[in-house]
Amino acid sequence: MSPAERIAQRIRRDGPVPFDWFVECALYDPDGGFFARGRGRVAVAATSLPVPRSVRCSARS
Fold it and tell me: pTM to 2 decimals?
């Protein structure tokens, strides 16, 4: 059963699911989670890109 099928089945059975359970299933499910399919290396690399520096602003009243 794919993660999407597992998530849909549980929602039909129990109603809303906890966010942490949803993420765990979608990312780490051994039968098709995001990281189980070998795409995790790309996702990790994409999250470590440099972030532009913030510009300091102040509001005057």
Answer: 0.55
